[in-house]
Specification:
This protein is mainly beta. It contains four helices and 24 strands. Strand 2 and strand 3 form a beta hairpin.
Length: about 375
């Protein structure tokens, strides 16, 4: 009887170990970058339980493509889901930075493009529009044959907040184009003989009509590059100028979310096509500010100084793991292997109990799937 008991116990133990080993072997891992060639990646967790990723490029011609995934690791190509020549299409070229939101059974894509109504022949005539579809993979059709609004200057990088009080807010970046700004950095660069002027892009917010057909009130300036060189943010936000890369300072690619009673706005600075593109954040108690930039900026930047291979990290969005517990930062970057092509990274991020936001990246080593 004792022999039988010990034999059964031994067999159960073996089976348990075997199952654990098998489970361990089957634990899914992934490595950055993903096999997705997007700039400005945005991930939507749809009501069907799947993740959908949209972005700039990936072979889409005058429009946007999408990928889908059930686990944030394996991504399926869904093809082009928005075409600029749809019946209400208002754009001409330069289709950038799509973000898709699910509302009341419909899917709304906010994006920027070069508006074909351009009487002054502006080189950068970018505006923001919205298209709608019945499914996350489209086809998306513009809601109207014109942009949401025209503030009188070129704008890109739409981001939307559906506030708890029922209001809807649109965030965007005013382009650097024809926007020279006086600052100590600009004066310093001119004295050096590098650039005669420094153009800047600034992030604005404005309330939007519930049907997305226009805006309510005037846009509010929320974020801009530092004016003073002794500002704690000036060094990292001015690297495109101080490295003599280009005569522009960017504040773009904003992404807002609320945690507790605080609004967090992540944003990107420096030239998107260069190595110094990086991400910081600012916080506020109100959707329209004032926002205060964080002391631990930048929270995401190139890692070549520490032996890594990643540069140009920026224009992020946020999603969550399958169980909803882990925040994930989705962004584009470049590596020494991928060259100038922008590819997608997903890394864990966290907001601590005292409100400090951190991103655990950029990574390229294998890690457990989200």
């Amino acid at each position: 009887m004792h022999k039988t008991f010990f034999l059964i116990t031994f067999l159960i133990t073996l089976t348990s170990m075997s199952c654990q080993t098998s489970s361990s072997k089957e634990a899914k891992t992934y490595s950055n970058p993903l096999q997705v060639k997007f700039g400005d990646p945005y991930v939507l967790r749809a009501s069907d339980g799947k993740y959908y990723m949209y972005g700039t490029g990936a072979g889409a011609k005058n429009g946007f493509a999408a990928y889908s995934s059930e686990d944030l690791t394996d991504w399926k190509w869904e093809g082009q889901v928005y075409f600029g020549n749809n019946k209400n299409g208002w754009g001409e070229h330069s289709y950038w930075a799509p973000e898709v939101y699910e509302r009341n059974g419909k899917y709304y894509m906010f994006y920027s493009a070069h508006w074909k109504v351009n009487p002054n022949k502006e080189e950068e005539n970018f505006k923001i529009g919205v298209a709608v579809a019945d499914k996350p993979v489209g086809p998306f059709t513009d809601m109207q044959d014109k942009p949401i609004f025209d503030p009188g200057y070129p704008i890109i990088d739409a981001n939307v907040l559906f506030a708890e009080d029922g209001k809807t807010y649109l965030y965007y970046s005013r382009c650097c184009y024809k926007h020279p700004v006086e600052s100590e950095v600009a004066a310093w660069a001119k004295q050096k003989g590098w650039f005669n002027e420094i153009e800047e892009s600034w992030v604005y917010g404005v309330e939007m009509k519930p049907d997305f057909s226009g805006v309510i009130g005037e846009p509010v300036l929320l974020l801009r590059p530092p004016v003073k060189m002794d500002d704690t943010q000036a060094e990292w936000e001015s690297r495109s100028v101080t490295s003599k890369e280009v005569n522009r300072r960017w504040t773009e690619g904003s992404y807002i979310f609320k945690k507790g009673d605080t609004y967090y706005m992540m944003y990107s600075a420096n030239y998107f096509g260069g190595q110094n593109y990086a991400v910081g954040y600012a916080t506020s108690k109100s959707p329209l500010g004032p926002f205060e930039k964080a002391a631990n900026n930048p929270v995401l930047q190139k890692n070549t100084a520490t032996g890594g291979i990643v540069t140009g990290t920026g224009h992020n969005s946020i999603t969550y793991s399958l169980d909803g517990k882990t925040m994930l930062c989705v962004y584009h970057g470049r590596t020494s292997k991928t060259g100038d092509e922008r590819v997608v990274f997903i890394d864990k991020m966290n907001v601590s109990e005292n409100g400090v936001l951190t991103v655990e990246g950029p990574t390229t080593d294998p890690q457990q799937a989200p």
